[in-house]
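F.,

This is the one I mentioned.
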């Protein structure tokens, strides 16, 4: 018997609003239990043809299709010029959050080839390791005025917002412009009961081959709304991701900062979307070769950085190295290896200097033990409890999402007026880690 989440309906007040980012438990059961894991987060429907269980406010509607013959580098040029002009009008600096992948590096190349503005970059160890040659090249560019080394993206986002003079440009949703990993055989999917599943889809097979029949029944209206022909499963999953995962990626830097941030998602523009709809799998992933995914981005990058390493780049999970991985690895290793004297010193400092912690009888020593106890070593995740009892009877109105692994901030929302509700701040232990162990914001 599989543990499935039951839908908790919205209140009358909630049902009247549109939502940029919904509560996880509002989704209809099939969406929450089957498509949330496939999308690796909250799915949306930019075609607005299926019932998700709540009303959407779409950040970037799908533009009415108009074929474009522009190349990828040309649409990147248009977008870079648009953002550069915006920055000049507002008197703000442009900073690009560079994960090291082909999307964020394409953004850097576009600004430096097609605009006259200076930019700043954020970099992490994982970004440098992902493409060291590109990082070295960036350090030699006079128009890249600062490279900020950081370990954990949410802390950096807070500092940039506090500074108040930045437009923060990210490489999202570049993945969805080119394609989606939905149903790909190497995509590990966490089920609601804590188990794993892998779909064995041939992306070069005819459309729908290998997709469960009840998924096809649910998704058919979204596919019917596609303005271009879908030639194979690659095109099918591109369109599904383009419709269902687009807004999830657009909100990721907001999720990092836990509040409204001056973020521009580079590839959300109408021009980038028109390019995406105008080009099939044959352009986005030529020769049916996953290692050549984003070939057009490589051509664009090679114009600015004419190095053979460009052609060796492959799709990676770049964001994990600057967000979840530091928390799961760096923070855990730090808190695990603390010496007793340091633990006592931290405990004493917090209790003596922060009255609200003293009033709550906070104990860093106990907090540390709780964090270590809640760490899932096999899956490298913090804060994951035991797998729920499959026979667990969900109480009426209960928030079951807190019992399901792998989903961040289950009850957090962003409404149509950009109000952020129930977005958790970092715990005391991670704040200590930030203040005493990480590099200060440079």
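My design for it:
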């Amino acid at each position: 018997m599989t543990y499935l989440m039951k839908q908790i309906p919205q209140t009358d007040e909630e049902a009247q609003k549109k939502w940029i980012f919904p509560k996880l438990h509002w989704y209809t059961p099939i969406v929450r239990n089957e498509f949330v894991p496939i999308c690796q987060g909250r799915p949306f429907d930019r075609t607005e043809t299926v019932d998700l269980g709540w009303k959407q406010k779409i950040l970037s509607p799908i533009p009415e299709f108009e074929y474009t013959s522009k190349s990828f580098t040309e649409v990147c040029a248009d977008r870079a010029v648009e953002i550069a002009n915006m920055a000049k009008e507002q008197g703000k600096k442009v900073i690009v959050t560079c994960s090291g992948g082909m999307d964020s590096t394409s953004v850097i190349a576009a600004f430096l080839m097609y605009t006259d503005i200076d930019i700043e970059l954020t970099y992490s160890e994982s970004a440098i390791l992902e493409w060291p040659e590109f990082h070295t090249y960036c350090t030699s560019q006079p128009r890249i005025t600062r490279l900020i080394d950081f370990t954990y993206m949410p802390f950096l986002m807070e500092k940039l917002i506090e500074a108040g003079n930045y437009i923060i440009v990210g490489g999202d949703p570049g993945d969805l412009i080119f394609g989606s990993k939905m149903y790909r055989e190497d995509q590990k999917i966490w089920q609601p009961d804590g188990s794993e599943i892998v779909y064995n889809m041939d992306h070069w097979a005819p459309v729908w081959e290998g997709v469960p029949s009840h998924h096809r029944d649910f998704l058919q209206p979204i596919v019917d709304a596609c303005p271009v022909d879908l030639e194979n499963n690659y095109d099918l999953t591109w369109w599904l991701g383009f419709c269902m995962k687009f807004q999830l990626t657009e909100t990721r830097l907001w999720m990092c900062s836990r509040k409204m941030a001056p973020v521009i998602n580079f590839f959300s523009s109408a021009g980038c979307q028109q390019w995406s709809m105008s080009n099939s799998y044959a352009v986005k992933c030529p020769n049916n070769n996953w290692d050549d995914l984003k070939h057009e981005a490589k051509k664009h990058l090679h114009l600015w950085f004419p190095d053979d390493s460009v052609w060796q780049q492959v799709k990676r999970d770049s964001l994990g190295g600057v967000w979840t991985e530091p928390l799961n690895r760096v923070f855990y290793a730090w808190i695990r290896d603390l010496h007793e004297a340091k633990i006592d010193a931290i405990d004493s400092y917090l209790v003596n200097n922060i009255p609200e912690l003293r009033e709550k009888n906070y104990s860093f020593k106990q907090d540390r033990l709780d964090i270590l106890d809640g760490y899932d070593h096999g899956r490298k995740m913090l804060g994951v409890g035991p797998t729920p009892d499959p026979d667990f009877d969900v109480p009426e109105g209960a928030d079951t999402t807190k019992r399901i692994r792998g989903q961040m901030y289950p009850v957090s929302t962003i409404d149509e007026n950009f109000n952020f509700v129930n977005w958790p701040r970092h715990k005391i232990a991670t704040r200590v880690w930030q203040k005493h162990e990480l590099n200060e914001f440079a």
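The first strand starts at residue 18 and ends at 21.

Talk soon.
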